[in-house]
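Repro:
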Amino acid sequence: MNSEIRNLEPSAIWNNFADLNAVPRASKKEEQVIAFMVEFGHKLNLETIVDNVGNVIIKKPATEGMENRKVVVMQSHLDMVHQKNNDTNFDFDTEGIQMIIDNDWVKAKGTTLGADNGLGVATIMSVLESKTIVHPDIEALFTIDEETGMTGAMGLEAGYLNGEILLNLDTEDDDEIGVGCAGGIDVTATKNYEEIDTPENVSAYKITVKGLQGGHSGMDIHKGFGNANKLLNRILYDMNDMLTISEINGGGLRNAIPRESNAIVVTNHLKEFEDKFYSIAKIIIDEYTTVEEDLEIILEECLLPQKVLSKQDQQMLLRAIYVTHNGVFRMSPDIENLVETSNNLARVLVKDGEIQLLCLTRSSIESGKENLANTIRSGFELAGFDVALSGTYPGWKPNPNSPILKVLKKVYEDLFNEVPNVLACHAGLECGILGTNYPAMDMISFGPTIKGAHSPDERASISSTQKYWKYVLEILKNIPLKNE
């Protein structure tokens, strides 16, 4: 499978991507990929640095005739989102990603592909190892933990980089040039509950919501995709009087829209319970039939659990989840079609006497981020939860007068005879954070077309990667002089 990927063009990128995808690289578990990048830099006899938090920096001198150009930082993150389908048997800690080709797309077998941001990493590797690509001084910055806190970017201290321009290779449509992004904050609600014995003369059922598209909780939040945690809660809420909850396990990472969620419940209203369940399930499936054609809501008998929630704890839990805002909260009044503020109810875990509810709140303005986070916190606190706000990171404010933006626009128009889309995005890019310690750096973001990031449907366009590589090479040739 992966051998077929190595035969694609541009071969440099796809071979480096295949090598990278053989290395486990979950967020906060980057030890192996850090070692991989250090070995890569040393093999090329290039200056290679690992900073205090684990970011890897590799520096390559300019090619002949480009020494008088501005120093360029090429930046991508090493970690990837680890998501898989429930029926996929795969160990992210030990196995390399299994890739396949489907027409114009490279995909993975039942897991995330890691094109976000592995194609960016592979691009930089290709520039570093090349003996023919024309470029100025390059400082390759490979950050860690972008997907679950951006702690790599936050921990990068001043003084490591001398670059005046930063090319962030983490945008996912090849006709877009990113000039701004949203900031974010994690909202975590926890509560202990006293487990009670399962009532007598009841039957147990497992309720499963599955088959949703999922996707990136920033870039896809406006598309109306179903959130498995919210849909499951809707069912449980509507059936609250005839069931008792034992467990809930839904969603995963904060930056992924939940695709699957399930609950173990008990009931003594068998016929009435099943009839109402199928009625509610049909209503929800009909509501989402246009956007979620693979949605399944399943009821199946299961083993009787020993413990359940009290009715009081159950009611407070279901109300707290119901009132939690999910999706777009506000559109930007200043930038057309830009989501300003949103929230993703990413994780619901109810088990062994503890409830955990995890959200990621995003906004392109700090006040909007704080407002929605406080809105969500207030709802949880009214339900008796302890709430922590953590992992906050700033957005990246657009600079319409950016010199490197002018370069990228002109190169794009000259190469492809069309005007690129210059925009801010609702995802969290590292540019805003990196700008705190390098405020004078002129930053821009672009990349090849990637669809379904943060889900097992993630796929990268082969033809777009060819277009993007051509674009990268021409940009490096056209970096401004140091005195411009």
